[in-house]
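Ticket #4471: complex job returned nothing on first submit. Input attached below:
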Amino acid sequence: MVGMGKGKREGRPPMRPLTPRRLLSVCAILAGVLFVAVVFSLRLGAYSISSRDIVMTLINGMIGRTNQIPSEFSLVVFGLRLPRIALGILVGASLSVAGAGFQALLRNPLADPYVLGVSSGAALGAILSLSLAPHSPLAMQAAAFLGAVGTIAAVYFLGRRGGQLDSSTLLLAGIISASFLSAIISFLMTTLAGRDLRGMAFWLMGDLSSAPPADPGRWFGWLFFVFFIAAGAIYTTASDLNLILTGEEEARHLGVHVGRVKLVVYVSASLLTGLAVSVSGSIGYVGLLVPHVIRMIFGSDYRLLIPATAIGGAIAIVFADTLARMVVAPTELPVGAMTALAGAPVFIYLLRRRMR
Amino acid sequence: MSGDADSGRPGAGSGTSSTGASWPPGSGQNPARVLVEQATYAYAATGRDAPDFTLGPISFEGNRRELISILGPNASGKSTMLKLLAGMFKPLSGRVQIDGSDASELDARVRAQRVALVQQESALLFPLRVWEYVLQGRYPYGRRLRFQSAQDCRMAENALLQVGADDLRDRWMEQLSGGEKQRVILARALAQEPSLLLLDEPTQHLDIGGKLELLRRLRRLADENRFTVIVVTHELNLAAEFSDRIVLLQKGKCMRTGEPTEVYQRDLLEQVFQAPLEVHLTVTGKPRVSLRDQDLPHAQAKAGWTIDPN
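Support reply: We reran it on our side without changes. The output follows.
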């Protein structure tokens, strides 16, 4: 494994570029960690179930022997906790891959859907669609996507100085856009009479407790389908992104179709952000933190980074949501508050390290 | 598109091997590797950052094993010429051809297999090992997710050896000195197995020893790899020492092309560089340029002369 340690005197490892085998083994290890996190999260709650029962319930559920599962287990595991965890996996993976995508696209290691204001744009889109067409769930996803696309375009143009993308101007543009969009959202929320204000405020902070619609299987099927299309599209550009990260001009000279790659990543990362925000509100810093942690452990090769980040993001959100349910039990924190508690200090640390 | 023209490239996995001199450079039997014919280029008047600027018409040829230097004062169009050669710009008129096809018409990846450009290094966003950086030069040859093959690794090792940077292989890019970084960037370009190697002011941040070493190395690489090397530089004497041909530019106009002795004429150089210069020949017959002594202030003061512009 290519360590990212700063050790200056190491032996001489052979030149070891990424192989499919190493890619698969890293993903398998992370998937194992995710499974453990899921079992851990399924156990916890007002109704306590042992790990063994959880695993048996999951296995029986997977092989279709639902008659072997006690009905209260079935209700708690499949009816309540698993949908929430599945939502967490989807949201964590989407935001992390979007974050990694934006970091490469904008050549800025501090880029993240939340910091760039893209999440706020998506939230505004979602709220507008809620007030205009409250009963069509897909309209909400589409509106969130459009909000994300519009915001990142605006931030991109505001973040340029002298025709060049400027790192700190870009971050400022993102933060200002986010606060501006939040103001519009507050305005909308107070003027839209008759809606559940507290629920909406909770949702805005990032929350996974919203109940899935009547047919959760189909609903999740669609969401994960969109996720795999968008994340897959970003993944096809992984080796191009590696070169773009060392310089756009150089990438062009090495044969990368830079414009095409940027368009794919721009649309897909916006789609992923819109998808995540439309189901869970704006959960911050996941898209920033997870790619960084993965980079520190496995290196910055995007061919490995993107799948590892997707699973890592899922682990992070499942973990954060479990904590959010536990810390102030029997009530719960919005998971967005949890990620911000951990993410904001790390963001500041990264920012300060960069400025040195 | 590339098949026939690629036939002369050093065999895969044998970056330094030569297939034997099937044709002497300049014999006229084969088309030149690099052909610039009456090429012109102009920045549009609407461009906000670029002033109105016209380049050319320029004509010259580059053959295998040749080292060509593009000289000229600042803002003479050297970098624009390099962009034309790299296929990033399409000439307004005339032709810029690499191995018989127009550089700007080639598919990006095919072009990257033929032309490598060494520029001033740009800042890396995330830490990268030297070997990872050099392997990027194999990108134009990859497929799908571009997992690098054992052969790609061999080519990268080879490239590092050729620039004498083998021992840097496992270092982090950000820990290298200016000269070391320059060699690693050159290695990445070699890993592309180009038939044309372009360098944009590669001597800029090097001391005199480093400059000499780099030009020597380029000269040797041109011979070993049988490719054409084109260097944009301000180093008049090093260019004269190592180049087969010089292209002299001033304000976008091509003032002269030819062998160093043809181009290094006192009047011409003085006019182009706006400085009192002296040209003499060394024992090896290479022209050498220096500042004209009697025009320097201290010399004038010593001799009690007054300035005579003629």
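Confidence is low (pLDDT under 50) at residues 1-29 of chain B. Closing as resolved unless it happens again.
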